[in-house]
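Morning run. Coffee first, then this:
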Amino acid sequence: MSGFDAVLFDCDGVLVDSEPITNSVLRDMLHELGWTLTVEECMRLFVGKTVRDEADLIQQQTGFVVSEDWLVSFQRRRNEALTERLTAIPDIQDALQRVHQHHGGRIACASGADRFKVELMLRKLELIRFFDGRIFSGYETPRSKPFPDVYLAAAAALGVPAARCAVVEDTVVGVTAGVAAGATVFAYSPATTLHVDAAALRAAGAHHVFTRMTDLPEMLGA
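And here it is:
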């Protein structure tokens, strides 16, 4: 498969293995409010979404009205945990090198997360060199995923129609956003219990599903 003018990568779960860390912090904080979940249950509920957007669900389960102070505390504890424990998705460095070279640097990171978190993670794992100046956050667009805004913004900044872009995602919410943008979506679904299964990603509209980052460059024509 080839013919893409640019490649747009999600961050969490695609570039960095952050979701189990973030959700372990969230699980702990929800437990403090009286809502007991496993990390796996927490991920099923929250992966691909912002905690702010799920404030009503948290209030329904705990009676606690999510405040700005609580969200700031969550972000602080999350960032500390990511700084200590974050690792890269296996083989992502080589995959990015090949895709970046093949597409003449026309790749971007388009995440639903806040910019500080995205840049913290990419710097820690030395992936920032592939995306410096081409990082887009759903916090900075009118609507975040599952709406297409962040992918449309990334495509526009690269000067490429979204229909000529490949999107690399790993969640139903993200796949939905990529499809809504009009891009061709490649969904990463490694065989672990902490990732969304392939059937759910296909049902959300993913055009292709793959299990190893080593396969991605060839699928993208690199």
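The chain has a mean pLDDT of 95. Good start to the day.
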